[in-house]
Amino acid sequence: MKIQRSAGILCHPTSFPGKFGIGDLGPEAYKFVDFLERSSINIWQVFPLGPTGYGDSPYQCFSAFAGNPLLISPELLLQEGYLTKEDLHRTPHFDPISIDYGKVIDYKQKLLRKAFENAKLQTDSSFGEDFESFEKKHKDWLEDYALFMSAKSYHGGVQWTQWDPSIALRKKSALKEWKEKLADEILYQKFVQFQFFRQWNNIRKYANDKKIKVIGDMPIFIAYDSADLWANKELFTVDGEGRLEFVAGVPPDYFSPTGQLWGNPLYRWDKMEEEDFLWFRSRIQTLLEMFDVIRIDHFRGFEAFWQIPGDAPTAETGKWVKAPGKKLFKSIMKHLGDVPIVAEDLGVITKEVEELRDMFDFPGIKILQFAFGKDMEKKFLPHNHIPNCVVHTGSHDNDTTRGFFEKAKNEPNDIYYFAQKYLNYYGDDMCFEMIRAAYASCSNMAIIPMQDVLNLGSEARMNFPGRLGGNWGWRFVWDQITPDLENTYRYLGYFYERPKVEKCN
Predict the structure, then answer these.
(1) Which structural domain, as residue segments, surrounds residue 241?
(2) What is the pLDDT of residues 113-170, one digit of tens each?
(3) Active site residue 297
């Protein structure tokens, strides 16, 4: 994929302002897109948009295809007539800058169920032709997902391995029975997905009409507790009873002496190859309908992955196993054309991974926070960038850039000193100088996390890898956007030709 010289902001919809405890796809999302346009920003990047499970991580979802119900806007449901003003008038008080997921989930689920009941009263329960078209178009994944979530709800939300064995193992004799027993709940789950995709498609079109492209994220692996595995056990590393045989992770390194045990099931690539990677192609096709560009997380896993026994306590006993990345992407390109993909090629990257990335002309990623100091990675320094790559100041797994340098300044390393010398900057706003360096880079795409745009400290960090709970909760408020911020980014875009414009007023 060849990319135009451009600038973007990484901001997940959960981080938008609003009174409902979590950002959503309603009026505040449209206001954010307007902010991007006025700032000469023509890329909006988001995390995976799937329905999040335990831990609230967008990288651990109940489905690789479905959308997150928490992102559905109550205000847009009000406009559609599914909710009343009285329904929204009783909104509890939420923290405007942090998400209390337990409280939000309880509140949003009640609103969605009220909207569903109102929709059934307004129609003959079919929700109209648009719903029927949606249901038909997405039948391949929607039927399994709706049944999975309905059965999960019936069993009190526990993992599918703890359900009644007949439905947990999808016994043919039981599937029809459970579909009939949970018919209303299944319809509810479909209704929720219909509302999500309608709202998402509208905000994406609004962005596209303003010449803003949307980059969406695709985790390489699926979650164990997901409709994907439950409905397709033969494609993943579980036995006939659903017990994990092998799981994903990364080997021990300088930062983690026991490695990282992610626990995600791995693919049975031999089974997928027998079907010309149909399941994976369907996943890509769905994402192409949602985004303009797909960022693939942990791209190196398509060349080789760290395979860990399913009962291992740590990642130490794993081994590298080759993956059929070349065959997979050739199949994708054959069936879907020149798919716009960005490869997250961070971590221990071998020559073989680089060859796979370059064979398909996928842009890689550069993280400026990783560049400075004698023990850091010099390939991330701006003078080592190439045009066909994406540069970020930091990522969702890092501290904010301001927080990063505030810590580096007080730690016994040479990171802060190196950065000062390299950037020839000795002032107090190292965060903005990093943003300027990203804009000045020859990398054709520069994407800045919203926390760095707002120059926020460690309190705004999005994720602490390995920490259970307390992640993914950051939100901004409009008061944090100063009057001159849009002008600042318009001028950055003008001077560094992101995008190339003739003048800047």
Answers:
(1) 232-338
(2) 999 999 998 865 567 889 999 999 999 999 999 999 999 999 999 999 999 999 999 9
(3) yes
